[in-house]
TrEMBL record:
Protein name: F-box domain-containing protein
InterPro entries with a match to the protein in the record: F-box-assoc_dom_typ1, F-box-assoc_interact_dom, F-box-like_dom_sf, F-box_dom, SCF_F-box_component
F-box domain segment(s): 32-72
Gene3D superfamilies xrefs: 1.20.1280.50
Organism, as annotated: Glycine max (Soybean)
Pfam families: F-box (PF00646), FBA_1 (PF07734)
Length: 353
């Protein structure tokens, strides 16, 4: 990777007939072609790009282009070494966002990651979700939602929730990007005075908020945060109207603002215990304990919504935690039950899969 600095580029000069160089204005040509410059800038961190906008008018125009921002995002997320990806955490008692570099955690052996304070916020917030490097925050004292870009420390317009401090609580929520309408949206279900009210917030110049009726996510999902995949939010929840414990993935499409369901893998869905879903490599991933085979199974839906695209990635032997650390593998012929077993959540797939 080439290193870009804020120094002005050198100029190649064409020699004149007298052996002396003419003025750079006459025969000046840049060392790098525009296409190559653009290719390099796509690999530069955001904060450096903000400084490079001052280099010249052409760089300012290029970096300010919304299309460049989307291409830069694609280049960052496609990085196999995950050097640009971070794990973010927010604590209510200490109003700051702490980030941890992902690539250090995936090394073998992993390197302890030192937390880096990456926020300039000075109040109490909750993180309601993240997408494309943006965080959706809920301001606890004033009960509004807003987007925050930790790379450039920019906060969007505030959207009030209509609640008062201490009134109501979130039953489920999710944040993501509507690519059809080029909008970032938040789905927020609040339990107020015994009634669930579900609203969808749209951020942007024409920001808005409206109520979503009859969203079939009752009983409530096992986790509040919906996982964003392919323009949809997804929760794992018990299947309605079934006496024995069955599970289904409930989904909400941001573009159409309608709900649906995603069926678990055919082969193992009748033996699912303690399922957990997540977004891994922009795909829906589920991990659950197979009560019949007595192991954990990790599945990846390579094409969202296509049942046949479910692919089993790995099988993990079951283990339990004894009274004393560490975790212990238990024999296969012991009682097959998942009571007391921990739930495993898939986080990511390293480059050495």
């Amino acid at each position: 990777m080439l290193e870009i600095t804020t120094k002005m580029p050198k100029i190649l000069l064409s020699p004149t007939a007298g052996g002396e160089s003419e003025s750079p204005r006459c025969h000046a040509s840049p060392v790098l072609l525009e296409e190559l410059i653009s290719n390099i800038l796509h690999r530069v961190p955001v904060r450096s790009l903000l400084q490079f906008k001052c280099v010249c008018k052409s760089w300012n125009s290029l970096i300010s282009d919304p299309l460049f921002a989307k291409d830069h995002l694609c280049a960052s997320t496609a990085d196999p070494n995950m050097t640009h990806q971070r794990l973010l955490s927010f604590t209510v008692c200490d109003p700051k966002i702490v980030s941890f570099p992902m690539h250090l955690l995936l090394q073998n052996p992993p390197t302890p990651a030192k937390p880096l304070c990456s926020s300039s916020l000075n109040d109490s917030y909750l993180i309601l979700g993240s997408c494309n490097g943006l965080l959706c925050l809920y301001h606890i004292p004033r009960c509004y939602v807003a987007l925050w870009n930790p790379s450039i420390r920019f906060t969007s317009k505030r959207l009030p929730t209509g609640l008062s401090p201490g009134e109501g609580f979130s039953t489920f929520h999710g944040f993501g990007y509507d690519a059809v309408n080029d909008k970032y949206k938040l789905l927020l279900a609040m339990r107020v005075l015994g009634e669930t009210v579900t609203k969808i917030y749209t951020f942007g110049a024409d920001s808005s908020c409206k109520v979503i009726q009859n969203l079939p996510l009752d009983p409530h999902p096992t986790e509040r945060l919906g996982k964003f995949v392919s323009g949809t939010l997804n929760w794992i929840a018990p299947k309605m109207g079934v006496s024995d414990e069955k599970w289904v993935i409930c989904s909400f499409d941001f573009a159409t603002e309608t709900s649906g369901q995603v069926v678990l893998p055919y082969g193992d869905r009748d033996n699912v215990c303690k399922p957990v879903i997540n977004a891994v490599r922009n795909c829906l991933c589920v991990c659950f304990f197979d009560s019949r085979k007595a192991h954990w199974a990790v599945w990846l839906m390579k094409e969202y919504g296509v049942q046949d695209s479910w692919t089993k990635l790995m099988v993990i032997p079951r283990f339990v935690q004894e009274d004393s650390w560490p975790w212990k593998l238990i024999p296969h012929d012991e009682l097959c039950t998942c009571r007391g077993f921990p739930a495993l959540e898939p986080l990511c797939i390293s480059g050495n899969e």
